[in-house]
Amino acid sequence: MLLYKLSDEMSDEKINLADYEMDLDKLFCGIIKNKIVGIAYDKIIDTFNNKELRKAFISLYEKNIQDTEIFCANLVYLSRLLSGCKFKYALLKGAFLTTQLYKKGHRTSNDIDILINKDDITELQELLKNNGFVQGKYDLINNVIIPASRKEIINSRMNYGETIPFIKLISGNMLEVDINFSVDYKPSEDSGIVSELLNHSIKIPVGDAYFYTLDSTEFLIHLCCHLYKEATTYNWVKTQRDLMLYKFSDINVFLRKFASSDFLKS
């Protein structure tokens, strides 16, 4: 129950850990595992009596702030790249949530997800490649990008609803772009759903640029469907990433902070 309280972005309640009998190490691990460090920090930092855990918690929160600043800079950079594109697109999840709905440092995003029509994949890929992106995976230890093989690239595009990520290092920091052309994990034979979503996209200002995302109703539907998809996928369940609290927090924050009363009634 305490973890649920610590994941509520919309509650201003301060929680005194002395009021709870618990294993602090276990609680700390639960906060990290559920990616709610930023939200929990403001609620309990003043009641951490364990000096080492307190120091670790502060360090994690400061890292969240730094990562958010990097993410926002990367988002502005990508938004500028996309400003001249002729195809329709929508940035999903974190691009809007992190920059528009959460307090700074309360939500982090590892990548930027972009939804496009399948017919526009090649044009977007060329745009990214021409601006220094490499399709592959990031080696954190050596801070280098390992290019994907042709086999991996083809396999992902044919069997999944997304491509191998496109990655670029900007001032030593990673920017990862995931291209989605389906709302499922498998490439959809009917692209009508994606086209319909993109036809209703809305413009969101960020810095001195802007990006497109899904409109309010479809954004919420996508959040719920995405949570369900990951909660019912074997690999996510196996690695215990299926029901992480930050995913429920996204829906909670979206409904209570962004959605209008008219939207909630509809």
SSE inventory with pairings:
Layout: H1 2-6, H2 24-33, H3 37-44, H4 51-82, E1 89-92, H5 94-101, E2 112-116, H6 121-130, E3 134-139, E4 144-147, H7 150-159, E5 166-170, E6 173-180, H8 192-199, E7 202-206, E8 209-213, H9 216-231, H10 234-238, H11 245-258, H12 261-265
Parallel strand pairs: 2-6
Antiparallel strand pairs: 1-2, 3-4, 3-5, 5-6, 7-8
Helix pairs in contact: 9-11
Low-confidence stretches: none
Strand content: 15-25%
Number of domains: 3
Oligomeric form: single chain
| Secondary structural class | alpha+beta
- SS summary, helix count: 12
The percent range for helix content is 40-55%
Shape: globular
In the CATH hierarchy, what is the architecture of the largest domain at level 2? 2-Layer Sandwich
What's the N-to-C terminus distance?
30 Å
Largest sheet: 6 strands, mixed
Give the tally of β-strands: 8
Reading side by side through the largest sheet, how are the strands ordered?
Answer: 1-2-6-5-3-4
Explain what this protein looks like in three dimensions.
By secondary structure, the chain is an alpha+beta fold. It has 3 domains: 1-49, no CATH class; 68-214, Beta Polymerase, domain 2; 222-266, no CATH class. The chain has helices at 2-6, 24-33, 37-44, 51-82, 94-101, 121-130, 150-159, 192-199, 216-231, 234-238, 245-258, 261-265, and strands at residues 89-92, 112-116, 134-139, 144-147, 166-170, 173-180, 202-206, 209-213. Strands 1-2-6-5-3-4 form a 6-stranded mixed β-sheet. Helix 9 runs antiparallel to helix 11 (245-258).
Summarize the structure.
This protein is an alpha+beta fold and about 270 residues long. It has twelve helices and eight strands.
